Amino acid sequence: MPSPLRAALFDLDGTLIDSATGIASALNHTLQALGHAPEPETLIRTWIGDGARQLLRQGLQHAGGDLPDGEAFESAYALLMRHYADSLPLQARAYPGAEDALQGLHARGVRVALCTNKPQRFIAPLFEALGWNDLFDAVVGGDTLPVHKPDPEPLWHIARGFGIDPAQSVMVGDSRTDAEAARAAGMPLVLVDYGYRRGYDLQTAGALQVTADLRSLLDLAVE
């Protein structure tokens, strides 16, 4: 870090929580309601990472039931969102070390924020299930602002709210979306080597570090 770390912004799915089992359940319930066969979770994991609309498009394409943009697709998407809400208890699976990292950063005086593309209305139930209601100083979901990652504005919005320069923060994520947002925002980047990378080459992303354990972030924090 070129300056002391004052804030850490975290992606959610694939970074702090392994939500794939719940997301796969939601997609499969949707596919079955539309007359298609369910898909293996291992396959659906490879589709996660570009948002729920793209997930639905990939599921329908694989099932041979593509829907063009319009009323039919929006109806299917609304159905997915209903099943998605029901799946939140299955999504609330924190990665080992995630909570320790969040608490440790707070203890070192680092502000902690969530910067995710998951719709805002799904975040509070997850926090409640995880017991994380008091761990974040700011939360930005995918529909909190008019734009979402990889646009840099969500990252800038959080930094402005904290009254700090983006260079004094770090974006922590698992995918190209997080990397491109951080690069555009002028914010240092840390990537986890698990999660939903969708074939993205983590080693060439220009990250400060690629880590298997979020507790390694504590080494960036100055007490």
Give me the CATH fold name of the largest domain: Rossmann fold
The assigned CATH architecture of the largest domain is 3-Layer(aba) Sandwich
Distinct helical segment count = 9
Classified in CATH, the superfamily of the largest domain is HAD superfamily/HAD-like
Largest sheet descriptor? 6 strands, parallel
The termini sit apart by: 14 Å
**Which geometry do the CA atoms define?**
elongated
Helicity, as a percent range: 25-40%
> Mean pLDDT, nearest integer?
94
Which secondary-structure class do the elements indicate?
alpha/beta
Instruction: Tell me the number of structural domains.
Output: 2
Which regions contain 5 or more consecutive residues with pLDDT less than 50? none
Number of strands: 6
The CATH first-level class of the largest domain comes to: Alpha Beta
Widest β-sheet, arrangement of strands: 3-2-1-4-5-6
Secondary-structure element pattern, one letter each: EHHHHHHEHEHEHEE
Describe it for me?
GO terms for molecular function: metal ion binding; phosphoglycolate phosphatase activity. Belongs to the HAD-like hydrolase superfamily. CbbY/CbbZ/Gph/YieH family. One of its GO terms (biological process) is DNA repair. Keywords: Carbohydrate metabolism, Hydrolase, Magnesium, Metal-binding. The protein has nine helices and six strands; from the N terminus they run E-H-H-H-H-H-H-E-H-E-H-E-H-E-E. With 223 residues, the protein is an alpha/beta fold. The protein has two domains: 7-18 and 92-220, 3-Layer(aba) Sandwich (Rossmann fold); 20-91, Putative phosphatase, domain 2 (DNA polymerase, domain 1, Orthogonal Bundle). It has a six-stranded parallel sheet with strand order 3-2-1-4-5-6. Helix 7 links the parallel strand 2 and strand 3 (138-140). The model has no long low-confidence stretch (mean pLDDT 94).
